[in-house]
């Protein structure tokens, strides 16, 4: 629950930043604002902790240490994954019950929304199954419907254009062309795909009110982007505005799942924008730089924070390490590995070979040896250890490797440093294994 609260807190901050960026770009193209809102939506699917874990892995894999002041490491870690203390004042016996209730309510809400969405989608699909095709020079098939719908595009991967008979009968040829241009813009932009992705986010995070606010902004900006595209293609503004008014008069706004319709969004606001002589301004360099720096900070910031903390954790010298117990048992060869490192003095490795263990102790190393012993024999390892001071993960793996090779095999491990190509001619230092005299 703590991880979920942290993720929601971070996603909300990103959402507030996205709102600020859309205000900065309010005079620019709606396409820009649409992508800002979409990125805020996608943030709910990508916790910062995953990016920091990726950076932590990269940092622990570095062959050389990174020298950083401790305050930078602490600040970088706390910026994206701050600690959240436990909830005070609650009995620990009550928390499991509250967690169960919360999960049950969430699951019921998600299932209800998913069933509603699926029901609407199946109803539209059933309606279109009996609708006749209309041959038109368009990149997607056209279905003619008699129901009270507005023109729209249904489907994600195989979209179909919905064209009601009333629209074909009442609108002029030039008005129909503007409506078709609007719908083809939805197809080119793949709006149904992005709408479906956000719909899944709404299903998963239905309890967060700002998620629904994102959906309303996505709908408004996508319709504004298509309106701008139709005007830029050379269609007359008055004719286009009249066609939208006729469409709304003849049908109803599409409320079916998976349909991008020309009558979506705030109609009054759209009419004002379409008939206005002012057009969207191209984005200037300061705004572009602001968007670029924000995107880089959100994408690379957590990774860099993880790299610094991982590198510091892997390369710091914690003094002498003494293993109190090491259990080594044979394991079946499987495709997955599992490692659990506890800085308090516990280490658990499942299904690892000697090559895996060497790679953890000496990242980016090249290992020469008998494949039968190094690659094809797997172990489960359990170890407990203590150190004079805080020990790094890499130093613990190195000391573990020395103990295993010294007591359980006839292998010798040499480490060669300062060579890239002619390593065969560089003498190696014996760091693990038995020494024969």
Number of strands: 10
Kindly estimate the percentage of residues that lie in beta strands according to DSSP.
5-15%
Count of the domains: 2
Number of helices: 15
Could you give a short account of the major beta sheet? 4 strands, mixed
Shape: elongated
State the helicity in percent bands.
Answer: 40-55%
Low-pLDDT runs of 5+ residues are 68-92
- The run of helices and strands is HHHHHEEEHHHHHEHHEEEHHEHEE
Structural class of the secondary elements? alpha+beta
Average pLDDT for all residues = 79
Task: Quote the distance from N terminus to C terminus.
Answer: 59 Å
| Sheet with the most strands: spatial strand order | 1-3-2-4
What Rg is obtained from the alpha carbons, in whole angstroms?
A: 30 Å
Summarize the structure.
The protein is of the alpha+beta class and about 425 residues long. Helices cover about 55% and strands about 15% of the residues. The protein contains 15 helices and ten strands.
Describe this structure as you would to a colleague:
This protein is α+β, with helices and mostly antiparallel strands and 437 residues long. It has two domains: 2-85 and 92-291, no CATH class; 318-433, no CATH class. Helix content is 55%, strand content 13%. It is built from 15 helices and ten strands. A four-stranded mixed β-sheet has the order 1-3-2-4, sandwiched between helices. A four-stranded antiparallel β-sheet has the order 5-8-7-6. It has a two-stranded antiparallel ribbon with strand order 9-10. Helix 1 (2-24) packs antiparallel against helix 2 (30-42). The longest helix is centred in the first third of the chain and has 36 residues, at 94-129. Residues 68-92 have low confidence and may be disordered.
């Amino acid at each position: 629950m703590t991880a979920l609260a942290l993720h929601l807190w971070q996603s909300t901050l990103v959402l507030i930043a996205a709102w600020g960026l859309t205000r900065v770009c309010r005079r620019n193209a709606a396409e820009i604002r649409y992508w800002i809102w979409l990125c805020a939506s996608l943030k709910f699917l990508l916790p910062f902790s995953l990016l920091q874990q990726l950076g932590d892995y990269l940092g622990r894999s570095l062959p050389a240490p990174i020298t950083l002041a401790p305050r930078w490491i602490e600040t970088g870690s706390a910026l994206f994954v701050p600690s959240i203390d436990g909830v005070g004042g609650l009995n620990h016996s009550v928390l499991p019950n509250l967690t169960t209730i919360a999960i049950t309510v969430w699951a019921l809400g998600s299932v209800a929304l998913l069933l509603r969405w699926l029901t609407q989608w199946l109803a539209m699909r059933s309606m279109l199954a009996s609708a006749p095709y209309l041959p038109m020079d368009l990149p997607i098939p056209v279905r003619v419907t008699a129901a009270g719908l507005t023109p729209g595009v249904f489907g994600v991967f195989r979209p179909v254009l919905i064209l009601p008979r009333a629209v074909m009968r009442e609108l002029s040829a030039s008005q129909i062309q503007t409506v078709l241009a609007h719908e083809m813009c939805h197809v080119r932009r793949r709006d149904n795909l992005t709408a479906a992705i956000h719909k899944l986010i709404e299903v998963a995070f239905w309890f967060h009110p700002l998620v629904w606010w994102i959906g309303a902004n996505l709908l408004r900006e996508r319709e504004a982007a298509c309106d701008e595209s139709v005007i830029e293609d050379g269609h007359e503004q008055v004719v286009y505005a009249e066609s939208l008014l006729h469409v709304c008069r003849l049908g109803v706004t599409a409320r079916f799942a998976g349909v991008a319709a020309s009558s979506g969004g705030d109609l009054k606001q759209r009419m004002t924008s379409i008939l206005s002589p002012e057009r969207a301004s191209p984005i200037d360099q300061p705004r572009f730089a602001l968007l670029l720096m924000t995107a880089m900070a959100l994408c690379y910031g957590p990774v860099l924070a993880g790299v610094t903390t991982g590198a510091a954790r892997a390369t710091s010298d914690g003094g002498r390490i003494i293993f109190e117990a090491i259990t080594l048992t044979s394991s079946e060869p499987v495709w997955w590995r599992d490692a659990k490192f506890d800085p308090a003095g516990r280490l658990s490795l499942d299904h690892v070979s000697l090559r895996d263990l060497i790679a953890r102790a000496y990242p980016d190393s090249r290992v020469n040896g008998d494949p039968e012993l190094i690659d094809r024999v797997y172990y489960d390892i359990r170890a407990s250890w203590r150190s004079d001071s805080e020990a790094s993960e890499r130093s613990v793996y190195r000391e573990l490797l020395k103990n295993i090779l010294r007591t359980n095999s006839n292998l010798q491990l040499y480490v060669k440093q300062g060579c890239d190509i002619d390593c065969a001619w560089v003498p190696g230092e014996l760091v693990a294994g038995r020494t024969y005299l």
